[in-house]
Design brief:
The complex is a heterodimer.
Chain A (H helix, E strand, L loop, with lengths): L1 H6 L1 H55 L2 H11 L20 H7 L20 H18 L4
Chain B lengths: L1 H14 L2 H36 L3 H9 L11 E2 L5 E13 L7 H12 L5 H4 L6 E4 L4 H10 L4 E10 L7 H4 L11 H5 L1 H6 L4 E2 L4 H17 L4 E8 L5 E7 L12 H4 L8 E2 L5 H12 L6 E3 L4 E3 L2 E3 L8 E3 H6 L3 H11 L1 H11 L23 H8 L5 E2 L1 H12 L3 E2 L16 E2 L3 H17 L13 E11 L2 E15 L6 E8 L13 H4 L1 H15 L33
Parallel strand pairs in B: 1-5
Antiparallel strand pairs in B: 1-2, 2-3, 2-4, 6-7, 6-18, 8-13, 9-12, 10-11, 14-15, 16-17, 17-18
Helix pairs in contact in B: 4-6, 10-20, 12-14, 12-15, 12-18, 14-16
Classes of the chains: A mainly alpha, B alpha+beta.
Chain lengths: 145, 569
């Protein structure tokens, strides 16, 4: 038996090495597979979230479309709408040009001539009100120093 | 134990002689070794196969997780402010396995109520294990069908193209097929981009102005019982189409159910005789070609005879008119005389430069080809000077108007948003001096002429009305009109040109029976400009120069000492 072992020592060592390598490869493979599975799950979750965001964006666009807002305005706000060019009565006799410039909305700088609602900054009055509200809230929760 | 060993040895000694025992053992060892090696080899090969050779499982898992019926990817379309015009969403579609449904009449009745469809029961009574009930149902319907709790009802997720703005901009944006291929409008023109890009396509259109124009046109269509309408807003400097409306319109989600009249794009594909709106162009050609001033006079006392044709004025002044008077009274006779002065070649070249002889160049799939006289005779020059005998699309008119008031430089049209002006590809049509004179005339027409209903207090609006008779059975019909108005705002520093056209408006009591451009289309342009003022925050043009200053002397002038320019033969 000892002779047999001595004669085949190389073969046995090789076999053990192969077995160890195989086992290691298998473990790595399993690890990789599990990681891939996890990544795929995350990928899928990401895609589902993206689809949900798309749906929400679509819903926002639908709910805020001009014709719907127009109808809602008629039902809920007695057709209130911002002043149009027709309703801006201009009489240089009663007001100076300077006065008009002060009370009417200003045109955007020439660099970007289109004004989007999102880009309009709130008036100082609204900003002040927000700050006051925020300040009051901090006072209530005791976080304002 | 020793007895057992002895027995074994004796048995072995009986079965095999001593020398043979060793050989047999060696042989057996060899066999076992070979077999073991073979097994090892198998295990190693399998391990290598599993770990190294077989493809990654990731792809399999990935594909399995995203399996959606009828799935397609398509980029969003947004307006110039980022408002969503078209997007792709996952929607559930309902199908049934009839063999798993017990109370079919009850389920069918419930489904009809929830989904708003009919004839569900015949579907449930079919043989087979799969039948579509309704594709692309809403989340609310999805919830209610689930609440029925029937095991025979199930859903498949599909992708659908959705248009949150609905009918608003339907003709402009267009629509796709079920499998996401663009079939009309921007969806068709930018089909490849939308399929390949991850970034949204940004159009030049502003949905707020789009709605404002559609609303104003719809109102006039109803008030004047018109058959259809079209209109557009163009950024004069950049050539961007800010709004493009064609009425009647359709729901892009159900384009297949719309009739041909609703699907026809009057704005881009329709070509019309624009009538007196064309006097803007013929007058510009006259001023540019002859260099004559506003004091030039035209004899409009009697109809103009040209061969077998007689040219009349709709608002006949029956007197000698100055050039501004020809413009604001919309004298066909005066314009025809201008046309005669320009000549056939001059008129054709000028109209060709403006783009009236061919389709406009724009990033839109269906563009109308103008109808022009062939061959072009002198009478065609006369009639084309007041917008008859030549039919162009509203896009042509917008581009040409922009060219006139943009200091004489023709902008290139674009439906996609353009951030910068490419001056290299723009072309000068008329001089800046002529362009300024035309702006004066446009303003004069709104303050003193036929376009007064487009005026807005505090703002400088300029424009020109147009009313043409449609051809019915080869003859012009006095009852079927195309009424239009092209407005420019603010006229001293033109930013937008607004066009409104009404197809076959009928006169009303309020309009004293008139259905002309001044009564029908001019108010539309006025309303849209009023909305532009509000949306874009334009301040009143109180400091603007008075464009009509000094033009009073050319109005109602009947000085017998001043001999008229008479092109009569």
């Amino acid at each position: 038996m000892t002779v047999l072992i001595k004669k085949n020592i190389v073969l046995i060592c090789l076999s053990i090495f192969v077995l160890l390598c195989g086992t290691a490869l298998m473990l790595v493979s399993q690890e990789v597979y599990q990681t891939q599975k996890h990544v795929s799950a995350l990928e899928r979750e990401k895609q589902m979230t993206e689809w949900e965001i798309r749906a929400l964006n679509g819903e926002i666009a639908f709910l805020t479309r001009p014709d719907r807002m127009d109808k809602l305005s008629a039902v809920t706000a007695q057709s209130l709408e911002p002043a149009s060019g027709h309703s801006l009565v201009v009489s240089p006799v009663h007001f100076s040009v300077k006065d008009h410039m002060a009370i009417l909305p200003r045109r955007k700088p020439a660099a970007s001539s289109h004004v989007s609602v999102q880009n309009l900054s709130p008036s100082p009055l609204i900003q002040q009100t927000k700050e006051q509200n925020f300040s009051t809230l901090l006072d209530i929760i005791g976080g304002n120093e | 134990m020793s007895a057992l060993n002895r027995l074994n040895r004796s048995l072995l000694g009986i079965l095999f002689p001593k020398g043979e025992n060793i050989r047999t053992c060696r042989t057996r060892l060899k066999i076992i070794r070979s077999f073991s090696l073979f097994l090892f080899a198998l295990v190693i090969i399998r391990l290598a196969d599993l770990t190294l050779l077989q493809p990654s499982q990731e792809e399999v898992i990935h594909n399995a997780s995203l399996h959606i019926e009828g799935h397609f990817e398509r980029a969003d379309i947004v307006d110039r402010n980022g408002v969503l015009l078209a997007t792709t969403l996952q929607v559930p579609s309902l199908f049934a396995d009839p063999t798993l449904i017990d109370n079919k009449p009850y389920i069918a009745n419930q489904l009809e109520q929830i989904l708003g469809i009919s004839n569900v029961l015949p579907k449930l009574e079919r043989e087979g294990r799969f039948v579509w009930i309704k594709r692309g149902i809403t989340p609310d319907q999805h919830y209610k069908v689930n609440a029925l709790g029937s095991p025979g009802l199930a859903f498949r997720t599909e992708t659908r193209r959705l248009y949150p703005q609905g009918k608003n901009a339907a003709h402009l944006v267009g629509y796709t097929s079920v499998d996401g291929a663009g079939l009309s409008g921007i969806e068709l023109k930018y089909d490849d981009y939308l399929k390949q890009s991850d970034n949204p396509l940004t159009l030049a259109v502003d949905v707020r102005l789009q709605y404002a124009l559609a609303k104003a046109l719809n109102k006039q269509m109803q008030d004047f019982n018109a058959k259809g309408a079209a209109g557009g807003v163009i950024d004069i400097e950049t050539g961007e189409i800010i709004a493009a409306v064609s009425l009647p319109d359709f729901d892009p989600h159900h384009a297949g159910k719309a009739d041909n009249a609703a699907l026809f794009n009057r704005f881009a594909l329709g070509v019309y005789e624009m009538g007196s709106t064309f006097k803007l162009f013929s007058t510009a050609a006259y001023v540019e070609e002859t260099g004559h001033a506003f004091s030039q006079k035209f004899d409009a006392r009697e109809p103009l005879e040209e061969g077998r044709f007689t040219i009349n004025d709709f608002h006949a002044e029956k007197r000698i008119l100055t050039l501004p008077e020809v413009f604001i009274h919309s004298s066909n006779i005066g314009s025809a005389l201008m046309g005669r002065a320009i000549g056939d070649e001059g008129m054709q070249k000028f109209y060709s430069d403006l783009g009236f002889m061919d389709r406009v160049e724009a990033d839109f799939p269906a563009l109308g080809k103008p109808l022009t006289p062939n061959p072009w005779r002198e009478i065609n020059t006369l009639t084309a000077s007041y917008g008859h005998g030549i039919a162009v699309s509203p896009l042509h008119v917008l581009q040409a108007t922009a060219a006139i008031v943009n200091g004489g430089v023709k902008p290139n049209l674009t439906f996609a948003k353009r951030n910068t002006v490419n001056n290299d590809i723009q072309r000068r049509i008329i001089s800046a001096s002529t362009a300024y004179k035309m702006k004066q005339l446009l303003r004069l027409n709104v303050t003193n002429g036929s376009g007064q209903k487009a005026d807005i207090n505090g703002y400088m609006v300029g424009g020109k009305t147009g009313t043409s008779e449609k051809i019915v059975n080869g003859e012009y019909s006095k009852d079927k009109l195309m009424s239009s108005f092209i407005g420019v705002f603010p006229i001293h520093q033109p930013k937008y040109a607004v066009l409104a056209i009404l197809d076959e408006p009928k006169g009303t009591k309020e309009s004293f029976g008139y259905a002309t451009g001044g009564w029908t289309a001019a108010p539309v342009v006025g309303d849209v400009i009023a909305d532009i003022v509000r949306i874009e925050g334009f301040v009143p043009d109180l400091g603007a120069p008075n464009m009509t200053a000094g033009l009073d002397r050319y109005l109602k002038q009947e000085d017998p000492l001043f001999s008229p320019v008479n092109f009569r033969r």
